[in-house]
Prior knowledge:
Elements: H1 14-33, E1 40-44, E2 56-60, E3 66-71, H2 80-96, E4 100-106, E5 115-116, E6 122-123, H3 125-140, E7 145-149, H4 151-159, H5 164-171, H6 178-190, H7 205-214, H8 217-245, H9 253-281, H10 297-312, H11 317-332, H12 336-347, E8 351-355, H13 362-376, E9 380-385, H14 395-403, H15 410-422, E10 426-428, E11 431-433, E12 437-442, H16 450-466, E13 475-481, E14 492-496, H17 507-517
Parallel strand pairs: 3-4, 4-7, 8-13, 8-14, 9-12, 12-13
Antiparallel strand pairs: 1-2, 2-3, 5-6, 10-11
Helix pairs in contact: 5-15, 6-13, 6-17, 7-12, 8-9, 8-11, 9-10, 10-11, 13-17
Amino acid sequence: MGIFDKFNNQDLGDEEAFEELCCQLFETWGMRAMGFDNTWAYRDIRGDGGDGGIEAYWFNTENSEYIGIQAKWFKKTISQAQYGQIRHSIDTAIGLRPSLTKYIVCIPHNLTSLRNSKNETVSLGEEGTWKMFAESIAQAYPDLELVLWDEHFIGNLLQEPANEGRQRFWFERTAVNPDGVRLALRRAIEELKDRYVPEIADDGGMAVFLDSFFGTIESRAALIEEIDACLDVCHDLAYVADSFASVEDGLTDELKESATKCRDVIAGYADSLSAWRRMLVTEPQALVEIDNIVVDYGAIEHFESDVQDLKEKYKLTGHADELIKLIDRFRELPGEYEICGKMRDGFSYPHCLVIGEQGTGKTCGFASEAAGFLEDGKHLPIFIRAGEINEHDGWKKIVNNALGFSDWDEAELWQALSSSAAMHDKCEGGITVRAKIAVLVDGLDERQPASSWNALVRQGDAISREYPGLDSHTLHVLMASSAAEPITSGNAFIMSMTKATCPPTNCSTAISNTTQST
């Protein structure tokens, strides 16, 4: 009996579940076995439409090298038609990514070896057939290494400490599954039904912020659209300023220098925005520090003044008019501080404290967001009442109690939750959003002392650093309090909340949605 005879597909279907498992192992393999540094980026492209010949890849941003993986749910002997499928996938992958250097094929069984057949002839077995297939690939693509991850190799990966929780998640009937999480969430929200039903009738500002904090395709696309608008103006302005500086007659050296300096400032700003845009498209594997962009507005204003003087002298009026219009358009763009703030919301803070007086809808906002995440399959929400937490409980005990677990150790718990969260990763329109383990803690002021919450925030950071998979599916803790003093840790973003920032819903609606989805 092989390990895949007990495969728990988590209601995805065997083929899709096997792809998911292989991608999770592939990501961890890159981080742990290969020790890829920050010059390498991982991306799962299964949900982005079309067949690219691979499920996911590692990409080296310095030398453009790709390493790809393809999972094939070929449970028994690989047929000639199936070898044709693999060859087609390899051809497609190389056609799209010519710098692919390693191509990994995953199958859920072990190849048969050389053996005697019934008619007393010798059969090469699957190993011989695979060897011949690999030789044909080597002839077609000499720079490509073809690697087989069979049942034995995958089993060995699952035995590694980095994957203990994944083995339990994918090969046992565990409670870490969509139904188990949905049941735990419904139970938690049901307890709120008679206690919290505030009147909420406003613009849903908190929901917008939380979508940005945890990450959604829609929130990322909106910010990309803002950046693209800025880039369009920047590119036009830099081009015209460069063209202006190249005019041979009628310009002083000082004016040419002013134009060149303006061009360089705008081009540098565009480069920084482009780096942020890449981050929005392919989410980093871990939280990152977003630095401020320093823009020398003085150089732009000085150049604008020079152009105005030139226009008044009726010189190069066509260039001058175009430059003045572009500078006016640049001035109307969203500021870099505004964009930087949104970037930090999504990529820099692992935790957030929402502060607001009683009746501002914090609890209902949390319940609604958790139910929405579960219904839309965006993240893995875990709703917790702070008043039910004992003073010395750590996150392992808190989450185990919330989900009704009893026998999960630290590594198994976080790795299994990471595997479950990874099933909610989104890839649409070229944008990747990694699902988060979204722990929503309501009523911090119901459980004192404040110092214990600071310790839990720091413990959450340590958990994300320690366990593989949590690097990319970060433990995000969202906390609500009526008082401003519970959290002082620098890793927690603080959002003040009034009735104008509550989502347009109520707890009864959230409970109804969660109940219907079960």
